[in-house]
Write a structure and sequence with these properties.
Blueprint: E1 2-5, E2 11-15, H1 20-32, E3 36-40, H2 46-58, E4 61-65, E5 68-72, E6 84-87, H3 92-101, E7 108-112, H4 115-118, H5 123-132, E8 135-139, E9 142-146, E10 153-157, H6 162-171, E11 179-184, H7 190-202, E12 208-209, H8 213-217, E13 230-235, E14 245-247, H9 252-260, E15 267-271, H10 284-292, E16 303-304, H11 312-322, E17 325-328, H12 340-350, E18 355-357, E19 361-364, E20 376-377, H13 382-395, E21 397-400, H14 412-418, E22 423-427, E23 431-432
Parallel strand pairs: 2-15, 3-14, 6-7, 10-11, 16-17, 20-21
Antiparallel strand pairs: 1-21, 1-22, 3-5, 4-5, 7-9, 8-9, 11-13, 12-13, 17-19, 18-19, 22-23
Helix pairs in contact: 1-2, 1-7, 3-6, 6-7, 10-11, 11-12, 11-13
């Protein structure tokens, strides 16, 4: 799909879309609860559809009714006599959240997905399978796993995706004995773990931070001793998910694209955001203001995005509008839907902005914005498409592969149009939609 955006300004208020990150978590908890739960304020993006499809493959019954879903969960610890196939499509959260769940009942499970998804790191689970002698086969479009996983002390570095830790937190309460996650500092993306713990609490499941590691050493059943440089979570076994009626909160990460329009000359406000949210991306307003007031001194005070990597593309776009910016903690942007640092470097050059990409840092240099002479490439990445759309509202231009927004925000362009941005959406690359 090709989208043409003409230079134009947005005015008005937009309601934040539902948080994709929290929707994943609430749907999984509901799918693991034996009884009927209700999840409200859902948006059926491609990633959320993948999580719903995987829950159905495991035996959960999900009945959508508008933006509400009625879910009767299933006991994933009981053998079913069949091999379940879980279609993760392109959703990294779905793949990493469900892998340990699939290791609970001792039967073979197949998690399928795109080649790009399967190329993203799974080292933590590969190591877990080796240590516990579980089956773990990786193929270009699927992963085949077989448990059963057993309670243990799971030791891991803190600079890997928090999705691995969240996946373990979903599964470990259903084992018979206590387990521990011992994560070496620094723990990146901690807010995402806090979101998982909040979701678990809503469904009656507890995960506890160990303040006194010595006290809990005796519980591990092993010779392992916790270390001072570890953040340790105690996860009681023998727990059960309790059905609940919950509502998905507004999404700060996608709201950021609309407020970024204000740095391109628009006047937009966003409603529907929980000020008490645990989302790491809630810092976007503070970071935008920092970019806007740096006065060219951004080299002296770079912005660390280790805890909010999904803001990377929109921050780079906003930096281009504000005269430049320097960002650290960017390492993990290479392993998202695209290599986001490289993708933004390539696309920002088309509009007159040079970008330097380092191992764990990105610098957006000051420059003179202009319309691109060739279409912007969406890189099959929803956040690249939305970030570059913000810039095109100022200079105009076209985006190829704009359908990538369906992954998280299917009505993104419709919302831009309602705010007054001149957007023409084409089928293929020629004919405008009626």
């Amino acid at each position: 799909m090709r989208v043409e955006i003409k230079p134009s300004k947005a005015h008005g208020t937009v309601t934040a879309p539902p948080s994709k990150s929290m929707a994943h978590r609430l749907l999984i908890c509901a799918g693991l609860a034996e009884g009927e739960s209700v999840v409200r304020n859902l948006s059926y993006s491609e990633d959320i559809k993948a999580t719903i499809a995987c829950l159905r493959s495991l035996g959960a019954d999900i009945r959508p009714d508008g933006n509400t879903a009625y879910i009767t969960g299933t006991d994933v610890t009981k053998p079913t006599g069949r091999t379940a196939v879980l279609p993760c499509n392109e959703s990294g959260s779905t793949l990493r959240f469900f892998t340990p769940i699939c290791l609970l009942n001792g039967e073979e499970h197949i998690l399928t997905g795109s080649a790009r998804l399967m190329s993203r790191p799974l080292d933590f689970y590969r190591t877990l399978a080796r240590i516990q002698k579980l089956d773990f086969e990786e193929h270009p479009n699927r992963v085949i796993v077989k448990g059963p996983m057993t309670p243990a002390v799971f030791v891991c570095p803190g600079n890997i995706s928090s999705q691995f830790f969240s996946g373990m937190m979903f599964a470990l309460p259903l084992l018979k004995r206590n387990s521990f996650l011992a994560i070496r500092k620094p723990l990146e993306s901690r807010p995402y773990l806090d979101m998982t713990i909040k979701a678990l609490e809503l469904f009656g499941v507890g995960v506890f931070l160990c303040d006194n590691k010595k006290m809990h050493n005796a519980e591990t059943g092993t010779a392992y001793a916790f270390e001072e440089d570890q953040i340790v979570f105690r996860i009681p076994g023998g727990d059960r998910y309790i059905p609940a009626d919950v509502t998905v909160e507004g999404d700060y990460s996608n709201a950021a694209f609309f407020e970024a329009l204000n740095y391109a000359g628009s006047k937009v406000s966003v409603s529907g955001l929980d000020k008490q949210s645990m989302q790491g991306d809630r810092v976007y307003k503070e970071l935008f203001e920092k970019l806007d007031t740096s006065d060219g001194l951004f080299f002296l005070d770079p912005i660390d995005i280790s805890d909010c990597p999904d803001l990377g593309p929109v921050l780079f776009a906003t930096a281009a509008l504000c005269g430049g910016g320097r960002f650290t903690g960017t390492r993990r942007l290479r392993i998202k839907e695209s290599d986001r640092s490289a993708a933004m470097k390539h696309e920002l050059k088309k509009v007159g902005i040079e970008v330097t990409v380092e191992e764990n840092a990105v610098t957006v240099h000051p420059g003179n914005l202009h319309a691109p002479s060739v279409p912007i490439d969406g890189h099959n990445d929803h956040r690249i498409v939305m970030a570059m759309s913000v810039l095109l509202t100022k200079v105009g231009g076209m985006i190829e592969g704009a359908e990538a927004v369906n992954k998280s925000f299917p009505d993104f362009f419709e919302k831009l149009q309602k705010l007054g941005i001149e957007v023409t959406i084409c089928n293929g690359s020629a004919t405008p939609e009626s």
